[in-house]
Model the fold of this input.
Amino acid sequence: MEKTYNPELIEQKYRDLWETGDLFSSKTNSASENAYSIVLPPPNVTGSLHMGHAFQHTIMDVYTRYNRSKGNQTLWQPGTDHAGIATQMVVERQLGLENISRHDLGRDKFTEKVWDWKSKSGGTITSQMRRLGASVDWERERFTMDESLSKAVRKVFVDLYNEGLIYRGKRLVNWDPVLLTAVSDLEVISKEENGFLWHIKYQVADSDESLVVATTRPETMLGDSAVAVHPEDERYQHLVGKFINLPLSDRKIPIIADDYVDKEFGTGCVKITPGHDFNDYEIGQRHNLEIINVLTDDAKINANAPISYQGLDRFEARKVIVSDLDKQNLIEKIDPHTLMVPRGDRTNSIIEPYMTDQWFVKVKPLAEPAIDAVKNGSIRFVPENWEKTYFNWMENIEDWCISRQIWWGHRIPAWYDTEGNFYVADSIEEAQKQAGIDAELTQDEDVLDTWFSSALWPFSTLGWPEETPEMSRFYPTSVLVTGFDIIFFWVARMIMFGLKFANDVPFRDIYITGLIKDGNGQKMSKSKGNVLDPIDLIDGISLKDLLEKRTQGMMQPKLAEKIQKQTKKEFPNGIPSFGTDAIRFTFTALASFGRDIKFDLKRVEGYRNFCNKLWNASRFVLMNLESKSINLDAELSSQDKWILSRLQHVKTEVEKHLEDYRLDLMSQALYEFVWHDYCDWYLELSKPLLENAKTKQGCEATLLKVLTETLVILHPIIPFITEEIFEQSQKLQSKSTGKLISQPFPELVKELQNADAETEINWLKQFILGIRKIRGEMNISPGKPLPCFIKSYSKKDQSYIENNKAMLF
Done:
């Protein structure tokens, strides 16, 4: 073995060897009765993997490698997601640098550009996964827009439509006026911002009375359809059923009574604008109110408003409307007000509730069996508390808007004739049969929400709708490893679609991980300048390159100076190289049930030291056993029996913690065993044993056995260093047993559990630690011989002293 542990050389060697040897293949162990499968949550092809990806990929790889070692036929299914809006925005931004818009190119040429980007970005992602040691079955790599997966998407859409579970209609949606598309709730970030509350007088028609309503958005009053009061509010009961003269308009709107109104808040009067507020829309449906949209798709006032405001941007219109109301003495007062403002997570533009034609899925009929699947134990959430979050959302589920007004994604399989009739079909040929052979058809311009195709991922990747051997072998999958932030948007939809189309749940367990944050508990983001690239932790990065990486292409360049200052303080010398195994061990040790996980480089440094310690310990063992004939039947000393007994306990702990998804406790148990039991104690105790002819052979056999089995147990966490040490240890074996990745997990040998040996060596450890403490307190050099007087000892103590003289004196 090399004297110094060099992760870079080792990692390159085994990345190539594992793949060329087909050692990640799902065909391995094909004769096994048991199958184990995980689908990789497909990373978006928008760039590169972040720390959260690396964290979850490590967890999945630990389970994949472990199950391989247990003899199960194992599939870790890889792939990437086309990521609709996110990817389109990246490509549009690149084109913008050349002063080219997607409209300049047209749909076909633009999507060609996106496919080019996908090829480049997808390659980056797979390269990073390989660097992290991900043992996925690369031959089965999939992309959500592969033809086989697109076929599955079209079939699901057509089947749901034919069952009446997909429909097209006008509904209020989250609308991004910059992207000009509907966006999901996940893509809307609501934050507290300072604004104003305008109190406006609404005159009751044919009366001297007026009602005062408060609004944070005066421009939407142009679309008001009613004013609502609480039915039990005595102040206004005499006005219910009468009309209001809507200010700045020639319209009359009714005064209605609805329980939604809080009579204790403000004046107890609420303006109702069904076309521009989700709550108002529901009230409008209850009272059959007119839905008036007063905005264009780019958030300008449209022709449904008075002509004096038409064409104004929504915020410019606000100023003009407030001014006009003031001139008419209709503003009673203006209060500063803190409000939640919904912004698009990509454009930062204020999202509008907007009435438009969209495609929707009726999800309530799909949600009921998905709720039952968790209640009856077909699916288990880990930790269990996430069940409440799941039920809360599923039991209050709304229809799902699945159409997006963009170009990149799965085109909606619907075709329109010249009269506006539409035909839903798998292909234009099928649509033509429905419409009539002579009909001129045009495909719907919209694409599907990216979550629609992602919801099919566990079974579309296995070949569905075809009845493939992989479907019957690996579905349902064993576990889904994912974050809590997408329980609603992805996990729940996979369960609904899996039950509906694959006739079973998509996974048995759902392991919800925490969110990786920086050392101060802050979310990692480009704008905060605290993002860490997992590859930079593996290879190291200079301060200069780190500064450039953190400030390049910033959406808010003014933050660059602050980020540079913060980075220089935190990493004055850049980031050193830690190697993949140290990063993986860190991630595994952090895999607790906590919601937020602080990532501290000091912990990575600690696990890099662990790898060094393991390397040096292995060198010691192999150097002492070199050219020796190992006698596996040799008599064992108490020290040998002790370490073998401790090893059996560790096997039990590791398997229990894996079953419970407590990788943090598993890592802790292995760290304690290797660092303290094996390296600090047994290797030191072995030195006098190796010098004694009576104990030498037993010690040699134990050193090799414990090292070999420990490498197998550690391998799922730190695969590179363990594979290299194992290869070196093969020189001591009578015949090669192959690669470590293919070794069976060591079985528990109950006969080797030895309470007497553990009691004896624990006594010995306490004796030695007591002497060390005295030396420390009296400042006596560790190398100086020390006479020892033992007082008041038992027969058991005497036997322990006799057995361990070589270690004590």
Q: What stands out?
A: DSSP finds 27 helices and 25 strands in the chain. The chain has a mean pLDDT of 94. Residues 181-352 form a domain with the Isoleucyl-tRNA Synthetase; domain 2 fold (CATH 3.90.740.10). The first strand starts at residue 35 and ends at 39.
